[in-house]
């Protein structure tokens, strides 16, 4: 249902405050849902219409049980779409509603202005519904089990996309057939002849035949793909022997994967930004005296941390606050960095008041990786009590390993690089000249889980229909993991 | 109209139960059966199926946390046995507190009493009627309870001060309305009796007894939640058998030699005296370490089983825990003697982790 009159008035009020602070968001429509409806929408990732798949049912069950036992509750959901759609939980108290409405506007502002969202489809609501219709059609025609099993196989590799691709200039497509390859004249063998004899000694058909052979040869040598390609899904769409419905399903999965990518890339910033603004809008503008305690209660729950877990809301909001303070007081630049007198540093205040402008700039230009890399300082890490932990094989438990700034930051950045997952690309689509698929894991010191790799390869084999391999390293030795659809094999492997 | 999510949810449940897409079940995170917390509560993770993806070995990669603590200090999550901290990125298994009944229900989705037949006397057959016995806040207008609704409206008007004694007009609003509600009486039931027999002899170590008790306890809990009017009888035995009550069964500590036949004899007598197979579904469960005293006694057991017990029971379940002395071979002997008999299910319970599987062997479907 739509908002009640009271909530509509609150929405109008908060819209005014938010615009006043300079937030620039899409038109935002709010829907009021009860717990069960919001669980359903949340299970579908915020979209009222998704294709049928069991994992949405799993999500729904988890959310439903979490709510039933009072462990978790969804206060709001907001979708990157123009106009922006947001869902509020009916049972929220009035203070909760104020908080989440402000929160939603900040998210919407982030969607609209952050660079990484600039290439996403802003009519995704419709696109998702289209996907649902198409997959339902295939399900009707080919059977639930068959379509679902194929979707599962695709989901297994849905993350193998190229995060930089949306921003890369379109590459010239690789030569798809040999006509585009130029053959140098000197490679063609001719009998020396006078001009008038040329036609007889070197007949044109003979020259043509030679050219064709050379072209074929060069095409083979050129490799396939020409360069390692991170967009594995695209490679499969273009080259795997799929029939039409499968190709269509795979391309839908790819599209959705790219659509959700920026949300995964900016989790910390997005939540930090939204928390930063709901906190300011409420405490500075629209909180009544009687609501302060409830607000503080809700806000602190959102930001609570526990050991071994980094709360993106907390890290994000603290970092935005820190940036604002630093740029307000001029605590940046060479002079400040080189100052090692702690008294002077503590009292450092150039009264620049550039903080607000700076955080707006940051929300426009960065994603989590850059955000942490650029703005997480040693002072901040100390203040926030950040530490690195690792699994200790001797004691069999996770232990704090260090509070050293460099270590902590490296660990944090590692976890954010490619979302803490192995970076993988297509290396050869005609491996061993048998049309087998060779992927390459860019090994950076951490091994893959072999059991998962085996199962993932099996799913990939279902799509590629010929044996698939991945080059990686296991305990310091180069290994080739292979799956031919029946069994998983590990063999040693020369460097590529 | 059926909501879309209900279709997806049903499909997920069916995968979890192993009815469809069986290949997915291997990706299911294992349900911890017993993690007792507090008095009546256990902590179990929800069933979750993770589609395989290329991932780092999480134990190698580590992470970043926030809070107090010195280097070398473990993350305070109360983790034992090298378990994963509950909330590590990418490794979320939502742990929830559930009551015993809830847990039994979850167990129940995969189990049933095999071969249960509609047996019973007239007194147990109940008719299937709707009885209007309660009041609800929502319902169809045709079931509106006028008196209650009027009362609620009056109460509200009195409280808010809009009631005028000179002009007593009561206008119910939707919050005041009360409706009759009904309950459906259950369908006819089957009579069933479960006879638990446990070996409490000296060869059973404390750990063995604990495992047996846990398994019996879970079977008991689950059966109670699923079948009403179920009767339970408990027998303990060492060299001699005696019938005890449930409390004693779960708490008794004894020692002595082992004569399994004594228990079977008592079981047979119990059935003869109280449970006519015409009227009752009978399920004896026997747990032991299989360390019987002498082959003679084993022979008596076989005779009892084949001549008496198999004729009357629906299913005879034998669970064998790993003997502390490694000499238990009763299961092997049973299997070779009655391997093909469909009235018998035997199961090995090497350790605590095997309890769930063992219960599934006993009560799993399709036996």
Structural description of this entry:
The complex is a heterodimer of chains A (496) and B (367). Chain A is α+β, with helices and mostly antiparallel strands and 496 residues long. Chain A has helices at residues 5-20, 35-43, 54-68, 94-113, 124-142, 144-156, 198-201, 204-221, 232-239, 244-265, 267-286, 292-303, 312-329, 334-338, 342-346, 355-365, 368-375, 378-383, 405-416, 450-464, and strands at 28-33, 76-79, 84-89, 386-392, 397-402, 424-431, 436-441, 468-474, 477-483, 488-492. The termini of chain A are far apart. Chain B is of the alpha/beta class. Chain B folds into 3 domains: 1-51 and 92-109, no CATH class; 130-184, no CATH class; 192-363, von Willebrand factor, type A domain (Rossmann fold), CATH 3.40.50. Chain B has 10 helices and 12 strands. Chain B has helices at residues 4-16, 58-61, 100-108, 146-160, 206-226, 246-251, 260-274, 294-312, 330-338, 355-363; strands at 36-37, 41-45, 63-66, 95-99, 130-136, 179-184, 192-199, 230-237, 241-244, 281-288, 316-321, 344-349. In chain B, the strands form 3 sheets. Chain B has a 6-stranded mixed sheet, with helices on both faces. A 3-stranded antiparallel sheet of chain B has the order 1-2-4. Chain B has a two-stranded antiparallel sheet with strand order 5-6. In chain B, strand 11 (316-321), helix 9 and strand 12 form a beta-alpha-beta unit. The model of chain B is unreliable at 30-43, 77-97 and 121-127 (pLDDT under 50). At the A-B interface, helix 3, helix 6, strand 4, strand 5 and helix 19 of A face helix 1, helix 2, strand 3 and strand 4 of B. Strand 4 of chain A pairs antiparallel with strand 3 (63-66) of chain B, so a sheet runs across the interface.
Could you give a quick summary of the protein structure above?
The complex is a heterodimer of chains A (496) and B (367). By secondary structure, chain A is α+β, with helices and mostly antiparallel strands. In chain A, 52% of the residues lie in helices and 12% in strands.
């Amino acid at each position: 249902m739509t908002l009640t009159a009271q909530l509509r008035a609150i929405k109008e009020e908060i819209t005014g405050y938010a615009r006043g602070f300079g937030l620039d968001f899409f038109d935002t429509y709010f829907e009021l849902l009860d717990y069960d409806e919001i669980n359903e929408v949340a299970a579908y990732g915020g979209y009222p219409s998704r294709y049928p798949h069991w994992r949405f049912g799993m999500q729904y069950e988890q959310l439903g049980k979490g709510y039933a036992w009072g462990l978790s509750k969804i206060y709001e959901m907001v979708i990157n779409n123009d106009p922006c759609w947001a869902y509020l939980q009916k049972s929220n108290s009035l203070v909760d509603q104020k908080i989440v409405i402000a929160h939603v506007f900040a998210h919407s502002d982030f969607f609209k202005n952050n660079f990484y969202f600039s290439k996403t489809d802003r009519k995704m609501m419709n696109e998702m519904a289209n996907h649902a219709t198409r997959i339902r059609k295939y399900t009707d025609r080919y059977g639930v089990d068959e379509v679902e099993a194929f979707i599962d196989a695709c989901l297994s590799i849905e993350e193998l996309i190229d995060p930089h691709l949306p921003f890369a200039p379109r590459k010239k497509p690789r030569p798809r057939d040999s006509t585009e390859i130029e053959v140098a004249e000197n490679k063609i063998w001719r009998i020396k002849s006078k001009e008038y004899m040329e036609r007889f000694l070197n007949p044109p058909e003979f020259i043509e035949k030679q050219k064709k052979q050379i072209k074929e040869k060069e095409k083979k040598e050129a490799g396939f793909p020409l360069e390692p390609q991170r967009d594995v899904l695209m490679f499969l769409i273009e080259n795997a022997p799929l029939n039409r419905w499968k190709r269509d399903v795979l391309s839908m999965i790819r599209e959705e994967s790219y659509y959700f990518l920026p949300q995964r890339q900016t989790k910390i910033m997005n939540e930090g930004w939204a928390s930063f603004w709901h906190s300011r809008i409420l405490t500075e503008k629209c909180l009544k005296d009687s609501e302060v305690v409830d607000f503080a209660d809700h806000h602190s729950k959102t930001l609570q941390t526990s050991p071994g877990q980094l709360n993106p809301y907390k890290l994000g909001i603290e970092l935005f606050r820190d940036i604002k303070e630093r740029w307000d007081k001029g605590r940046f630049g060479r002079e400040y960095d080189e100052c090692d007198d702690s008294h002077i540093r503590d009292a450092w205040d150039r009264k620049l008041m550039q903080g607000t402008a700076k955080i707006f700039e940051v929300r426009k230009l960065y994603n989590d990786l850059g955000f942490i890399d650029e703005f997480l300082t040693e002072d901040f890490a100390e203040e926030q009590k950040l530490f690195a932990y690792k699994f200790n094989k001797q004691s069999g438990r996770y232990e704090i390993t260090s509070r050293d700034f460099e270590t902590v930051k490296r660990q944090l950045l590692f976890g954010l690089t490619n979302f803490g997952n192995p970076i993988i690309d297509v290396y050869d689509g005609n491996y061993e000249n048998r049309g087998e698929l060779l992927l390459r894991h860019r090994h950076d010191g951490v091994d893959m889980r072999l059991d998962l790799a085996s199962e993932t390869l099996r799913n990939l084999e279902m799509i590629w229909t010929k044996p698939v391999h991945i080059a990686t390293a296991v305990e310091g030795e180069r290994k080739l993991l292979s799956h031919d659809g029946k069994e998983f094999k590990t063999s040693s492997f020369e460097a590529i | 109209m059926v909501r879309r999510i209900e279709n997806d949810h049903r499909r997920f449940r069916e995968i979890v139960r192993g009815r469809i897409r069986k290949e997915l079940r291997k990706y299911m995170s294992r349900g911890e059966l017993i993690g007792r917390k507090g008095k009546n509560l256990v902590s179990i993770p929800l069933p979750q199926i993770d589609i395989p993806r290329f991932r780092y070995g999480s134990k190698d990669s580590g992470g970043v946390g926030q809070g107090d603590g010195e280097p070398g200090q473990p993350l305070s999550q109360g983790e034992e046995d090298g378990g994963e901290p509950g909330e590590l990125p990418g490794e979320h298994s939502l742990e929830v507190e559930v009551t015993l009944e809830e847990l039994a229900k979850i167990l129940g989705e995969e189990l049933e009493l095999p071969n249960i037949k509609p047996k019973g006397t007239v007194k147990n057959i109940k008719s299937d009627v709707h009885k209007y016995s309660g009041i609800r806040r929502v319902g169809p207008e045709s079931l509106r309870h006028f008196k209650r609704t009027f009362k609620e409206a009056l109460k509200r008007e009195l409280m808010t001060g809009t009631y005028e004694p000179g002009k007593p007009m009561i206008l119910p609003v939707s919050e005041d309305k009360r409706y009759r509600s009904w309950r459906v009486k259950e369908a006819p039931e089957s009579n069933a009796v479960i006879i638990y027999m446990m070996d409490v002899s000296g060869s059973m170590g404390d750990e063995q007894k604990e495992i047996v008790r846990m398994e019996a306890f879970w079977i008991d809990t689950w059966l109670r939640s699923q079948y009403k009017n179920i009767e339970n009888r408990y027998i303990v035995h060492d060299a001699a058998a005696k019938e005890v009550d449930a409390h004693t069964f779960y708490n008794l500590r004894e020692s002595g030699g082992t004569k399994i036949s004594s228990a079977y004899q008592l079981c047979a007598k119990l059935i003869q005296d109280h449970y006519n197979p015409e009227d009752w579904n009978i399920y004896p469960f026997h747990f032991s370490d299989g360390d019987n005293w002498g082959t003679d006694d084993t022979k008596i057991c076989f005779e009892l089983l084949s001549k008496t017990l198999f004729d009357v029971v629906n299913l005879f379940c034998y669970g064998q825990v790993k003997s502390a002395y490694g000499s238990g071979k009763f299961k092997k002997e049973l299997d070779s003697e009655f391997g093909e008999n469909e009235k018998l299910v035997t199961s090995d319970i090497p350790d605590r982790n095997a309890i769930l599987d063992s219960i599934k062997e006993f009560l799993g479907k399709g036996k």
